[in-house]
Amino acid sequence: MLRRRQFLAASATTLPIFAAVSACRRPAVLDGPPPLSPDVRALFAAVAAEENLVSLYTRTMAAYSALGPTLAPLLAEHWAHLAQLRARIIEPPGKTVPDKVTSKPPIPDTTAAAVARLRTAEQAAVNAQLRRLAGASPSLAQLYASIAASEATHISALGPGAG
Amino acid sequence: MTKVSQAALQALQAALAAEHAAVYGYGVVGAMLSGADRAAARNDWRVHQDARDNLQAMITKFGATPVAASAAYRLPFAVQDARSARRLAATLEDGVTRAYLGIVAVPDPGLRTFGALAMQPPAKRAAAWRGTTVAFPGMPSR
Q: B115 and A149 in contact (C-beta within 8 Å)?
């Protein structure tokens, strides 16, 4: 039977061997980045939606220059929304979230129809922001709500007289 | 009786306090305006009374006592003409918008949606009184 002192000595010699054997086991294979959580997916969707709005405003202003004074301040606010949303995304080192316009509907043939198209897009954006609230952190939910309120004011600004 | 968190109740009480202030403030605004602006101020005053009553009912339903209006409020600046009255109206609406945005921070999904929807009309009225929109209604100035 091992005495206590012999047992401790044995531990001191066998533990490194045990550790070395354990170290020989292969590390678990990483199959790639983990899937995005629902709140991150919602944030990416919000960024994409703002990029689509920026694109729609830019193309509408290019097609109807007379709308410039009305649309330019609203477009500037969409750029501000986009900047704030993008600032919430933590990007891996060396990588940036690419600009990606996912929807490029044609610009309508008349000024009035083009303004109506913008109003519809703003309303859709408001509704989408509200759907993102439930799963968001408190501060991100407030950002979505504030952007939704801003977009709601755009609908009023695009009311009769805007075109 | 429906249960809500203490934080939710505080946010609702803050919104009610902002509505009380708006009801008082629109009395000052209306007195300095005429014509269509005065009619708009009267309409907005009524809207805030309805919102106040709605919040009082919600808070009561949640088992708390709604905060009472103050007897008087200190105006943020001197209101001596139509221009400063319109500016006060925009300031009142900004305050209400900010208070409803506070409700959006609570975890309850129903209250979040309520706060987000409730902040849109005052944001629109603030833009109408100010004559310009802002990028982030209810948020501190960036």
A: no
**Integer distance in angstroms from the first to the last C-alpha of chain B?**
40
List the structure tokens of A118. Answer: 């913008």
* Chain A residue with Cα closest to B125: A153
- Chain B residues near residue A142 by CB distance under 8 angstroms: 101, 104-105, 138-139
Q: Reply yes or no on whether the pLDDT at A26 is more than 70.
A: no
Inter-chain CB proximity B124 and A156 less than 8 Å: yes
All residues of chain B having their beta carbon less than 8 Å from the beta carbon of residue A145 are: 101, 104, 112, 115-116, 119, 138
How far B27 CA lies from chain A's nearest CA (Å)?
25
Total beta-carbon pairs less than 8 A apart between chain A and chain B: 87
Q: What is the pLDDT of residues B81-92, one digit of tens each?
A: 999 999 999 999
Distance from CA of B71 to the nearest CA of A (A): 31
Report how far residue A91's alpha carbon sits from residue B10's, in angstroms, rounded to the nearest whole number: 36
B106 conformational bin, left if phi > 0, alpha if psi -120 to 50, beta if neither: beta
**A12-71 residues touching B, CB cutoff 8 A:** none
Among B125, B122, B127, B116, smallest CA distance to B97 is for B122
- Whole-complex ipTM: 0.96
A107-161 tens-digit pLDDT: 999 999 999 999 999 999 999 999 999 989 999 999 999 999 999 999 999 997 7
Confidence (pTM): 0.86
Task: Return the closest-CA partner of residue B103 out of A44, A40, A142, A103.
Answer: A142
Q: Which residue has the tokens 């990028």?
A: B135
Distance CA A134, CA B41 (A): 34
